[in-house]
Amino acid sequence: MHVGVFSFNTEYAMRADRLARAAEERGFESLWVPEHTHIPVPQAGEPADPHTGMPLAGNGKFFLPEEYRHMSDPFTTLAAAAAVTARLRLGTCVCLINQYHPISLAKQVATLDRLSDGRFIFGIGAGWNVVEMGHHGVKFDHRWPQLRERLSALRTLWANERASFNGKYVEFTESWQYPKPLHSAGPPVVLGTLDTPFGRSQVAQHGDGWLPLTFDVDETKRSIADIHAQMKTLGRNPDKLEVSLFFLADEIQSTTTLAKARDTGVARAILRLPVGDEVVVLKALDEYARNIQ
Predict the structure, then answer these.
(1) Side-chain half-sphere CA neighbours of 3 within 13 A
(2) Which value, in Å, is the radius of gyration of the alpha carbons in the chain?
(3) Residue 95: what pLDDT?
(4) What confidence score (pLDDT) does residue 153 get?
(5) What range does the domain containing 123 cover?
(6) Which residue spans within 110-156 are E strands per DSSP?
(7) Residue 57 included in any domain
(8) pLDDT per position as a tens digit, 49-63
(9) Are 176 and 159 in contact (CB under 8 A)?
(10) Is 264:224 a contact under the CB 8 Å cutoff?
(11) Who's near 194: CB < 8 A, 6+ residues apart?
């Protein structure tokens, strides 16, 4: 099992180029960064954290941490990381593809894929912040149909010399676009979803991989078996599904948890780094590096 690290990628944390070099030097397989274009301020009468003003998270159970409004652009970040590393894989966890036009996003992804010599992993999600996606003209109830269509448009642009698309949400006439990704199918597409029946069905139908938020390793193991069974029914090869357990909890994961993750047979575990300066982040990196060797 590979081990990757996740950074909230704020302007006040360890810089991405230095973090990427440090992660590669310590033997980590991958670096992952998230995306929110912005966090809308709660309106009058809506719940807000009395200290930070942040809104409730999607599940409505807690207020978002302040770092959610400080995320840097993922593609610029990973290009910087690619420039100073040779082996480290680079992933979005996750890119909110509904908040881009596919023509623009296809070029960004293909450029990063080439600059990194094929090390990019395209983690995508449909989003949960209703107001944020609304600012981008996306209705919450349409987010998954939009994701599927936009992904199809991306793959069309990557695969064809002259690409055209005529869908419900995306339309463009025959066009040239370069660069193309290193492979005509594009980089691996990993779906970030909640571990729900609907989320698992989307992975079974459309994903090259799965990025589940992992709170209970045993439960996720059963869910992977469910996705594999669905893929077989659909005529897809479950052996080609790359699963990356994503530990978002704000704590250092124990060696016991990592051993259980390894026993699931997944491709990798992604471990969250603290939001802090270089000293704080390097300490966490070193602690994880000792645990994975």
Answers:
(1) 23
(2) 19
(3) 98
(4) 98
(5) 2-36+71-285
(6) 120-125
(7) no
(8) 999 999 999 888 899
(9) no
(10) yes
(11) 212, 213
Q: Residue 154 has which token pair? A: 């991306």
Structure tokens at 79: 């290009």
Here the CATH number for the domain that contains residue 146 is 3.20.20.30
Q: Please give the single-letter amino acid code of residue 188.
A: P
Task: Determine, yes or no, domain membership for 64.
Answer: no
* Mean pLDDT for the stretch of residues 93-112: 98
Whether the CB-CB separation of 23 and 81 falls below 8 Å is answered with no
pLDDT at 293: 61
Q: Is 109 among the domain residues?
A: yes
- Tokens matching residue 182: 């290193």
Distance CA 149, CA 89 (A): 27
Q: Residue 195's closest CA among 159, 146, 246?
A: 246
Looking at the DSSP bridge assignments, the partners of residue 193 are 212
Say whether pLDDT at 213 is over 90: no
Flag whether the pTM goes above 0.90: yes
Cα four-point dihedral sign 183, 181, 239, 292: positive
What span, in angstroms and rounded, lies between the C-alpha atoms of 37 and 123?
Answer: 16
pLDDT (average), residues 142-154: 97
Q: Strand, coil or helix: what is 242?
A: strand
Q: What is the pLDDT of residues 193-209, one digit of tens each?
A: 989 999 999 999 999 99
The token pair at 264 is: 């699931």
The pair of structure tokens assigned to 169 is 């949400």
Q: Residue 62: inside a domain, yes or no?
A: no
Q: Is 235 left (phi over 0), alpha (psi -120 to 50) or beta?
A: left
* Percent share of the chain, pLDDT over 70: 100
Helix H or strand E encompassing 283: helix 278-292
